[in-house]
Amino acid sequence: MTHPELGRVIVVVPTYNEALNVRDIVGRVRRAQPGVDVLVVDDGSPDGTGAIADELAAADPSVTVLHRTAKAGLGAAYLHGFAVALDRGYDVVGEMDADGSHQPEQLGRLLDGLLTADLVIGSRWVPGGSVVNWPWSRMTLSRGGNLYVRLLLGMRVKDATAGFRLFRRTTLEKIDLSSVQSTGYVFQTDLTWRTVQAGLHVSEVPIEFVERVRGDSKMTGSVATESLRRITRWGLRERRRQFRRWREERGA
Ligand SMILES: Nc1nc2c(ncn2[C@@H]2O[C@H](COP(=O)(O)OP(=O)(O)OP(=O)(O)O)[C@@H](O)[C@H]2O)c(=O)[nH]1
Ligand SMILES: [Mg+2]
Questions:
Q1: How many domains does the chain have?
Q2: Which helix (H) or strand (E) holds 64?
Q3: Range of the domain at 34
Q4: How far does the centroid of ligand 1 lie from the alpha carbon of residue 195, in Å?
Q5: Distances in Å between the alpha carbon of 113 and those of 41, 68, 207?
Q6: Which of 37, 122, 124, 214 is most buried, by CB atoms within 10 Å?
Q7: Which ligand is nearest to the CA of 25?
């Protein structure tokens, strides 16, 4: 383990129809960071991802699999995975996509970053960060989404929507996971926002994000709509709170 002071580390990898990717990604994590455990959370993928993950787990005690019955969204899968990881006593709980967009070889940068943070995000939009092979439309969606988040929530985080990250156990315990309702990708922004609001330190380290090469995207219109709806609601709530504070201070 690169940093024994961080304690026991596990990375949660949600999968839905990632049969072409799961073997590769789990192997790369184990090779790049032999001290880091892996928990695959599979939503009953019809393509047999779960069975492949079971094979990997049988061959390596540091790999475990959580089988869920139906596709219930990225956020729901992570919440389940986090609960299991915390229950098993891990000190650091991470997130990573299965499709190769997040490179296990760069996990070391996140571990370094966590030494001085409560949440570390592998960021595409800080100096040194980049995206490989993204069409213009995806680039615009990510850039636009992050700009919207910054404008509405006033968060200084540059890549609040990113899904390559590490939480300290203490962070997850402070942000009340039981009240998280986001099921889709807005889950990422939700947890970033909660961490900032709890007064904890969020740090971003640059990563190179590579567009998926194999398998299909699970990004849908309803996932994007959920993001827009929730971020707008949080933003309005925050503005109301600011206005109330301003009025109180003026009245005092
Ligand atoms: N368990 C579970 N995993 C999911 C679900 N939706 C997405 N995932 C996984 O979450 C990760 C990110 O999903 P992607 O489809 O790659 O999303 P994306 O990166 O926005 O889209 P691409 O640009 O096509 O890669 C992948 O590992 C997916 O298999 C879900 O409902 N349940
Ligand atoms: Mg992807």
A1: 1
A2: strand 63-67
A3: 2-250
A4: 23
A5: 25, 32, 12
A6: 122
A7: 1
